[in-house]
């Protein structure tokens, strides 16, 4: 239920933010990175547990793919949904206590604590009340903003790096995360609608969704020359173009293919390529 593969990706995005900070003049501090990463992993796991708890009905109805339909753990085992809720509360408490302790001891900065609090609050509000953003058509934007912008900004803040530059530098990644979420929500649309979960994918027509997907991809790659030089090093902007064919592949089959592999591959490839390019 904690979705280990996604937690690994969380660490990669965290590393991207930290590397942007280092490239902007921040100093490497292994202790800060370790404490910040541990707190982040606990909070991220809690968000996944909350999602498993809230989505137990739709996950039981949908036909899972490797990239959609939740972990499927509750449906396979028959365990109570409240196990996920209790695990979420426990891991959230561990993560936030670690972050507050780190801030009190001077290991983590106040901006880092604030950003982690945003991740925790809006991560949980994606699934549970009072906001239940995924049930109101705002979940895709919420998830993309957290994973594509706030998460790398947190990585930068842990090393006292420039938060605003990191946010701007990660705009292309944010847009591909948003496109990926449109794709991964698509296979679950009927199950979501059946239980009253009104995601953006259940609200909009296939044609509207395709236009939105293509628009996100175009903005992602169209922003690269604008950001190159002032925000993104030229090598990072150029390397990012390697992912363009995969994104085009994802766009051409969106709403027609059930397994959203190209969209997931494009998102993962972009963060990995950009992280490597920032290291050059």
Automatic annotation (TrEMBL):
An example of a Gene Ontology BP annotation on this entry?
Answer: vitamin K biosynthetic process
Localisation? Cell membrane
The annotated topology with respect to the bilayer is: Multi-pass membrane protein
Q: Which residues cross the membrane?
A: 83-101, 107-126, 163-183, 211-228, 234-252, 259-278
Got a GO cellular component term for this one? plasma membrane
Pathway(s) where this gene product acts = Quinol/quinone metabolism; menaquinone biosynthesis
**Keywords assigned by UniProt?**
Membrane, Menaquinone biosynthesis, Transferase, Transmembrane, Transmembrane helix
Q: Which GO terms describe its molecular function?
A: prenyltransferase activity
Instruction: Give the CDD domains listed for this entry.
Output: PT_UbiA_UBIAD1
What InterPro entries would the database entry show?
A: UbiA_prenyltransferase, UbiA_sf, UBIAD1
- Gene3D superfamilies listed in its UniProt record: UbiA prenyltransferase
Pfam families per UniProt: UbiA
**Protein name per UniProt:** 1,4-dihydroxy-2-naphthoate octaprenyltransferase
Protein species of origin: Halococcus salifodinae DSM 8989
The taxonomic lineage of its organism, from the top, reads: Archaea, Methanobacteriati, Methanobacteriota, Stenosarchaea group, Halobacteria
């Amino acid at each position: 239920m904690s979705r280990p593969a996604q937690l690994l990706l969380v660490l990669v995005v965290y590393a991207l933010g930290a590397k942007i900070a280092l490239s902007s003049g921040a100093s490497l501090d292994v202790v800060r990175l370790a404490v910040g990463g541990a707190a982040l992993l606990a909070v991220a796991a809690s968000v996944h547990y909350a999602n498993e708890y809230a989505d137990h009905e739709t996950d039981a109805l949908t036909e899972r793919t490797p990239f959609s339909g939740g972990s499927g753990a509750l449906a396979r085992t028959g365990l109570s949904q409240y196990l996920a809720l209790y695990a979420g509360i426990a891991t959230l408490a561990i993560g936030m206590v670690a972050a507050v302790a780190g801030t009190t001891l001077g290991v983590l900065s106040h901006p880092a604590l604030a950003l982690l609090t945003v991740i925790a609050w809006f991560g949980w509000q994606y699934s549970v009340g009072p906001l239940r953003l995924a049930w109101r058509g705002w979940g895709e934007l919420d998830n993309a903003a957290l994973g594509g912008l706030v998460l790398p900004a947190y990585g930068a803040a842990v090393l006292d790096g420039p938060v605003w530059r990191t946010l701007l530098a990660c705009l292309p990644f944010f847009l591909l995360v948003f496109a990926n979420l449109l794709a991964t929500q698509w296979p679950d649309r009927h199950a979501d609608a059946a239980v009253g979960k009104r995601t953006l994918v259940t609200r909009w027509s296939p044609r509207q969704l395709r236009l939105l997907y293509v628009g996100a991809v175009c903005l992602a790659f169209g922003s690269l020359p604008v950001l190159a030089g002032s925000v993104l090093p030229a090598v990072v902007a150029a390397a990012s173009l390697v992912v363009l064919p995969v994104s085009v592949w994802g766009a051409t089959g969106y709403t027609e293919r059930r397994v959203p592999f190209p969209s997931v591959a494009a998102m993962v490839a972009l963060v990995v390529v950009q992280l490597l390019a920032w290291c050059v």
